From TrEMBL:
<dbReference type="InterPro" id="IPR014748">
    <property type="entry name" value="Enoyl-CoA_hydra_C"/>
</dbReference>
<dbReference type="InterPro" id="IPR001753">
    <property type="entry name" value="Enoyl-CoA_hydra/iso"/>
</dbReference>
<comment type="similarity">
    <text>Belongs to the enoyl-CoA hydratase/isomerase family.</text>
</comment>
<dbReference type="GO" id="GO:0016853">
    <property type="term" value="F:isomerase activity"/>
</dbReference>
<keyword id="KW-0413">Isomerase</keyword>
<dbReference type="GO" id="GO:0010124">
    <property type="term" value="P:phenylacetate catabolic process"/>
</dbReference>
<dbReference type="InterPro" id="IPR029045">
    <property type="entry name" value="ClpP/crotonase-like_dom_sf"/>
</dbReference>
<protein>
    <submittedName>
        <fullName>2-(1,2-epoxy-1,2-dihydrophenyl)acetyl-CoA isomerase</fullName>
    </submittedName>
</protein>
<dbReference type="Pfam" id="PF00378">
    <property type="entry name" value="ECH_1"/>
</dbReference>
<dbReference type="InterPro" id="IPR011968">
    <property type="entry name" value="PaaB1"/>
</dbReference>
Length: 262
């Protein structure tokens, strides 16, 4: 069996590692299917309350494995719309829908769809040596895996267009300064920081995190009225939860809350 994706379970969270380091964790079909299966498992497992997504070796992911696209090998031109709809789009939707925080620990270069998969995480922390490259224009493609959406919403049109058209690497530190990601940290600190967040979330109010994630994701396309209505509905739900009862009781009793995530 293949080990294109490693899936380790810890106390309350999982670490999922893209593991084709000889190709900078570029995506082939196997890596797609194994990543999807790992995230499905995280979704179904009540003991998993946060996910770290990272890459093995010196890169996070170099996007599509281009050796699977070699035009000199003959055959018809590939239908890339179909591969997006079959692999990349379901992955991005799966990451956004997952009711648990995903921490992307970007350990090195993230290029093409690899960059945009990293940007689909809820908390994106990058090592100082990492960079984000919208590599698509170098090979005659357009940004995908949500790239045009993340870049435009987080950075605005000027920076989005320049990054996409030039394919210049954006260093992690600039990505953090510009608000494309949450934080840039020293390389040696990356996994410790990611684990710190995962452990916090593994002991936090899981249902409220899921509602919060979905509210914030909806905000960029909702009107204020729609968003206020959604906040009302979600707060109604949160207010009925055991987590809220426990949170308030713990506050009043001046003790740490014991959220069980169920
Ligand atoms: O096709 C569809 O289904 C549509 C979807 C498209 C989504 C996409 O992601 S399209 C964009 C694809 N990705 C790229 O164009 C990036 C290609 N890679 C690079 O530009 C560079 O590798 C990097 C800038 C990311 C890193 O450069 P560097 O100098 O640090 O490393 P390197 O030497 O180029 O790469 C190391 C090895 O990984 C090397 O193999 P070798 O020579 O040691 O045997 C290289 O060929 C391999 N590698 C890197 N990226 C890919 C790859 N092999 C296959 N596919 C890759 N994308």
């Amino acid at each position: 069996t293949s080990d294109a994706v490693l899936h380790e379970k810890h106390d309350g969270y999982a670490t999922v590692t893209l593991n084709r380091p000889h190709r900078l964790n570029a995506f082939n079909e196997d890596q797609h299917l194994r990543l999807r299966a790992a995230l499905d498992d995280c979704a179904a497992d009540d003991d998993c309350r946060a996910v770290i997504l990272t890459g093995a070796g010196r890169g996070f992911s170099a996007g599509q494995d281009l050796s699977d696209r070699d035009p000199t090998l003959g055959g018809p031109r590939p239908d890339l719309g179909l591969t997006l709809e079959t692999y990349y789009n379901p992955l991005i939707r799966q990451m956004r829908a997952l009711g648990k925080p995903i921490i992307c620990a970007v350990n090195g270069v993230a290029a093409g769809a690899g960059a945009n998969i990293a940007l689909a995480g809820d908390i994106v922390i990058a090592a100082r040596s990492a960079s984000f490259i919208q590599a698509f224009s170098k090979i005659g493609l357009v940004p995908d895996a949500g790239g045009t959406w993340w870049l435009t919403r987080r950075l605005g049109e000027a920076r989005a267009k320049a990054l996409a058209l030039t394919a210049e690497p954006l260093p992690a530190e600039t990505a953090a300064e510009w608000g494309l990601i949450w934080k840039c940290v020293d390389d040696a600190e990356l996994m410790a920081q990611a684990r710190k967040f995962a452990e916090k979330f593994a002991n936090g109010p899981t249902a409220a995190y899921a509602l919060t994630k979905h509210l914030i994701q909806a905000a960029s396309t909702n009107s204020l009225d729609e968003q206020l209505a959604m906040e009302r509905n979600f707060q109604h739900k949160a207010g009925q939860s055991d987590e809220y009862r426990e949170g308030v009781a713990a506050f009043l009793q001046k003790r740490p809350a014991n959220f069980r995530g169920k």
